[in-house]
Write a structure and sequence with these properties.
By secondary structure, the protein is α+β, with helices and mostly antiparallel strands. It has one domain. It has seven helices and nine strands.
């Protein structure tokens, strides 16, 4: 087993997931051929599906991914994205009028290396709420593996002074492979930066939604959409 890699100057960034079928208005076949790398074809398929809904020139975190860094959306792209998402939910007014509905944009968090390489990206059933899981990992002092939920498969972390050790992806009943080590303070800083970036994105959401003439608290709605607490206060790591 190889030694885990020490990470420095890494980033944790909020991303939105744009599942191509949600945006496609045509009967498009997802490119798949067993045993063949079709990353470029998957990228073309994703681009075409988004273009069906009037969204162009968006760059995912890597070729073939459905995840886009939240802060790269222009106001125009974000406006059209929101219209598609709310329509998929049944309509903006229907969503806001449902007292049991807590709308959250699909997404999660990506761990980037110093060079911008994607190390950890969200998996199935991820959420922007998962920032809380990264916070818990930074606070964890147990030497035993603890789940860091990023969807499934997930990763795990444990603490061994002065390192937070991160595993590779795994699921239940698998040997947990050590993959990276980071200093706790650096992980805390990356989480704080991710929260600031998410807060800035919520302000952009609020600005875009102002044009919709909605009869609701836009700041509250924008923060709810990105899983931030209603007020600006959050516990300090």
């Amino acid at each position: 087993m190889t030694d885990p890699v020490q990470l420095t100057q890494f980033q944790l960034i909020p991303v939105l997931e744009l599942e191509p079928g949600t945006f496609s208005t045509q009967d498009r076949v997802f490119p798949y051929e067993e045993g063949k790398d079709q990353t470029n074809e998957e990228q073309e398929h994703w681009d075409s599906c988004l273009a069906d809904s009037g969204i162009t020139n968006l760059t995912p975190i890597k070729t073939g991914s459905w995840f886009v860094r939240a802060t790269v959306f222009s106001d125009e792209q974000l406006d059209q994205y929101l219209r598609v998402i709310f329509a998929d939910w049944g309509g903006i007014h229907e969503t806001l009028d449902d007292p049991d509905c807590l709308p959250e944009l699909p997404g999660g968090f990506v761990l980037l290396s110093q060079t911008g390489e994607v190390l950890v990206e969200p998996t199935c059933c991820c959420s922007l709420k998962d920032l809380e899981n990264w916070e818990a990992a930074a606070q964890n002092r147990s030497q035993s593996w603890q789940t860091l939920w990023v969807g499934h498969p997930w990763i795990s972390t444990r603490f061994q002074t002065p390192w937070v050790i991160l595993s590779d992806y795994h699921e239940l009943e698998m040997e947990i492979p050590e993959r990276w080590v980071v200093r706790r303070q650096e992980l805390q800083q990356a989480i704080q930066n991710a929260e600031r970036e998410l807060t800035q994105f919520s302000l952009k959401l609020e600005r875009v939604l102002e044009k919709w003439a909605l009869q609701t608290d836009l700041k509250k709605l924008a923060r709810q959409l990105v899983c931030l607490p209603e007020n600006d206060e959050r516990s300090t790591l």
